Amino acid sequence: MGITTPTHDGIAKLTNCRLLRGNELVWGDVWVSSTTGKILRSQATFYDDLIMPDNTIDLKGRIVSPGFIECQLNGAFGFNFSTVLEDMSEYRKRVSDLNKRLVQTGVTSYIPTVTSQTSDLYKKVLPFLGTSGQRRAAEDGAESLGAHVEGPFLNPGKNGVHNVGVLRQAESFKDLEDMYGTSNINPDAADDSIPIKMITAAPELGHMMELIPELRSRGIVCSVGHSEATYEEASVAVAAGATMITHLFNAMRPLHHRNPGVFGVLGIAERLPRPFFGVIADGIHLHPTTVKIAWNAHPDGFILVTDAMHMAGLPDGTYPWTNGEAQQFITKKGAVLLLEGSETIAGSSSILIDCVNNFLQWSGATIPQALKAVTSTPAAMLDLKGVKGSLEAGADADLVVLSDSCTEDGLAGLVVEEVWKFGTKVFDNCTA
């Protein structure tokens, strides 16, 4: 991993590039500081402060995008977050190693996801998965924005690969505290941050619907998923404060012409705020046309996710996985992951740039529209607008430099060429 060593002010000017600005690619420059880790206001830096950049880098027409934000990552490169190790200090090291490899794919921030597990596992791993960018150290690689607990308050009828034996219903907030650990879900008086950033739950079960406002008051994103919710039930959940849908269409009541199910809340007939939603565009979980339909239903809520397992980045084979109370195995063959001995899809082995390129080829969307689905839209969902997912002055200087090319069919494809974290280049495809 090549690291650019900053000089006295650590200011770099990236020039002769196309910048992602809303729905356009605009020719311009972007100035970043490795000292502050922020994007600078170039006019004020140059004309008012009379500061010259330490480095001027000609990108030769390539695209500069904000760093990618991954909202559903179960693991990668051989490590799964739903894992208890005999020595949990080794867990921290494994997460650190994953972060340094993940950033090279263009993902500069992410939400580590823990699937439906026992209470003991949650309590052991969640303290290692909270926000990790406090040091603002580029060499740490991708940063966690807080953990996503996908379960265990899911509908057994839509469990997917989750172990039904550990699924539960929540009757009170104490059930959530008992499951995840009080300190993992309640802000400490001296520190507002908590490890959990997002919870996926089936709102139709138990008293989860009434618990959504309590979770939102703690800054936790409530996502509808693994659910048999009807359109009416999903609407009540959105009205209560659910702002996200986990892997739309997968593990939920299907769209029906007389009851559109969870998908229906992407419409505007009831005048409810429309939620954001994740889509796995790996070519396995959803038909390409289904992905296109979802995007056209609500482009501003569309978020590309991988739902990647620890087999991402590994060769084909059979790998162990802790699935609740059971030790199970997942077989990887090409891009397909199946629970051993079944035809049940067990997450994906894709990386996020693959999903971006698939979406470009299937949808007819422009490059800016596709990049928004992994930058500004997930940032808005996570209440990080203006901090992540943006090239505006004051935002964190997390950048991806991309080259674009066309296939024989004239379809666009993007390649990650450079990655910058907090104003420092941490990956260069030319030297990797």
From TrEMBL:
<feature type="binding site">
    <location>
        <position position="247"/>
    </location>
    <ligand>
        <name>Zn(2+)</name>
    </ligand>
</feature>
<dbReference type="GO" id="GO:0008448">
    <property type="term" value="F:N-acetylglucosamine-6-phosphate deacetylase activity"/>
</dbReference>
<feature type="domain" description="Amidohydrolase-related">
    <location>
        <begin position="63"/>
        <end position="402"/>
    </location>
</feature>
<dbReference type="InterPro" id="IPR006680">
    <property type="entry name" value="Amidohydro-rel"/>
</dbReference>
<feature type="binding site">
    <location>
        <position position="285"/>
    </location>
    <ligand>
        <name>substrate</name>
    </ligand>
</feature>
<dbReference type="InterPro" id="IPR032466">
    <property type="entry name" value="Metal_Hydrolase"/>
</dbReference>
<comment type="similarity">
    <text>Belongs to the metallo-dependent hydrolases superfamily. NagA family.</text>
</comment>
<feature type="binding site">
    <location>
        <position position="161"/>
    </location>
    <ligand>
        <name>substrate</name>
    </ligand>
</feature>
<dbReference type="InterPro" id="IPR011059">
    <property type="entry name" value="Metal-dep_hydrolase_composite"/>
</dbReference>
<dbReference type="GO" id="GO:0006046">
    <property type="term" value="P:N-acetylglucosamine catabolic process"/>
</dbReference>
<feature type="binding site">
    <location>
        <begin position="250"/>
        <end position="251"/>
    </location>
    <ligand>
        <name>substrate</name>
    </ligand>
</feature>
<feature type="binding site">
    <location>
        <position position="258"/>
    </location>
    <ligand>
        <name>substrate</name>
    </ligand>
</feature>
<feature type="binding site">
    <location>
        <position position="150"/>
    </location>
    <ligand>
        <name>Zn(2+)</name>
    </ligand>
</feature>
<keyword id="KW-0378">Hydrolase</keyword>
<feature type="binding site">
    <location>
        <position position="226"/>
    </location>
    <ligand>
        <name>Zn(2+)</name>
    </ligand>
</feature>
<keyword id="KW-0479">Metal-binding</keyword>
<keyword id="KW-0119">Carbohydrate metabolism</keyword>
<dbReference type="GO" id="GO:0046872">
    <property type="term" value="F:metal ion binding"/>
</dbReference>
<dbReference type="InterPro" id="IPR003764">
    <property type="entry name" value="GlcNAc_6-P_deAcase"/>
</dbReference>
<protein>
    <recommendedName>
        <fullName>N-acetylglucosamine-6-phosphate deacetylase</fullName>
        <ecNumber>3.5.1.25</ecNumber>
    </recommendedName>
</protein>
<dbReference type="Pfam" id="PF01979">
    <property type="entry name" value="Amidohydro_1"/>
</dbReference>
<feature type="active site" description="Proton donor/acceptor">
    <location>
        <position position="307"/>
    </location>
</feature>
<feature type="binding site">
    <location>
        <begin position="345"/>
        <end position="347"/>
    </location>
    <ligand>
        <name>substrate</name>
    </ligand>
</feature>
